[in-house]
Amino acid sequence: xxxxxxxxxxxxFPEQEQSPLSIRAKALVFADAExxxxxxxVERVAPSEAPVLIHGETGTGKExxxxxxxxxxxxxxxxxxxxxxxxxxxxxxxxxxxHEAGAxxxxxxxxxxxxEAANGGTLxxxxxxxxxxxxxxxxxxxxxxxxxxRVGARKPTPINVRLVAATxxxxxxxxxxxxxxxxxxxxxxxxxxxIPPLRQRQADIPPLAEHxxxxxxxxxxxxxPSLSPNSIAALLAYSWPGNIxxxxxxxxxALLVSSGREIRPEHLKLNTAAPQFAAAASTAEQPPLQxxxxxxxxxxxxxxxxxxxxxxxxxxTTAFEQTRFNQVRTAELLGLTRNVVxxxxxxxxxxxxxVSI
Length: 357
Ligand SMILES: Nc1ncnc2c1ncn2[C@@H]1O[C@H](COP(=O)(O)OP(=O)(O)OP(=O)(O)O)[C@@H](O)[C@H]1O
Ligand SMILES: [Mg+2]
Fold this sequence. Notes:
Elements (H helix, E strand, L loop, with lengths): L10 E2 L7 H6 L7 H13 L6 E5 L5 H10 L7 E5 L8 H6 E2 L11 E2 L1 H4 L4 E5 L6 H13 L1 E2 L8 E2 L3 E6 L3 H6 L5 H7 L2 E5 L9 H16 L8 H9 L5 H16 L14 H10 L5 H14 L5 H16 L4 H8 L3 H10 L10
Parallel strand pairs: 2-9, 2-10, 3-6, 6-9
Antiparallel strand pairs: 1-3, 4-5, 7-8
Helix pairs in contact: 9-11, 10-13, 14-15, 15-16
Bound molecules: adenosine-5'-triphosphate (ATP) and magnesium ion.
Magnesium ion (MG) binds next to helix 3.
């Protein structure tokens, strides 16, 4: 078999030992209940032959999960990653299926296509939503017939490839909009894995931060520093539009500016315009206690020495105002006895002159 074209920017033939991603992939962090559930799902489906469609926002770990599917699938062949967004339509057929010598003017040798290169292994089609419609038809045919015909060849070559595709757009919507073929969507979407954004698996944030601190401290040649409690709070309060990749970059930068000493909030280059925007958009859909929790995390990040007292004051004052200064109804609202409410009202100076409140 001719060796695949290693200069192609679209193809990666990762030697497991040389790929930084796979080195890190040995230490996958799945701490949050959501992620543990996801990992079990991945492990359950990996050994089957079924195509897998991975959906997740940018930087959530789609490629990492795809590699993990391959790693534990038991498939002996290689993992071949293809970025569908970078395919030039003119050369695509040869890229996908390969070509024989002399198939094109100037094509001297023959060339292995992606499917053949991944034979016995896994073909990872990244950004599948960007695959041009003309190629979607051809891909569908390969999936149905399980064989490819090289450009310029007469005979088909049988292939045994596990397909894993990833997308950060909603493919069902792309189908609705006419950008993606419905029949291909059904073919690909046999097993679907949805990777939640980092803000929805907050328990992963501290261990992932530690994980990247360990990796980058080692690279930079100093002892891993700790994160101050208020910088952990700042990380938890942030909305992570760029997900795990953004966390990785922020930790890397923090290590550089803290020069190996304790990481403090001023070392974290968080894009603070983003979380407010995200929070404003989603607050109405979230359970109120979740919203309060997020706001508490922001308060923790900002160091409030009197925080407990201020929050208690806010709670009692708001309830007392809402009941038009009625102690019995305030007690009902808060689920407390009237005696406890009276103690609280006294503590916060709300009993002295109710009219002025
Ligand atoms: N669970 C995890 N544990 C440890 N590292 C992770 C985990 N998930 C992702 N990463 C790391 O985060 C980075 C981004 O992951 P990956 O490239 O797989 O994301 P992606 O969803 O493919 O991103 P994009 O949409 O931008 O292509 C990588 O460096 C990866 O190693
Ligand atoms: Mg990716």
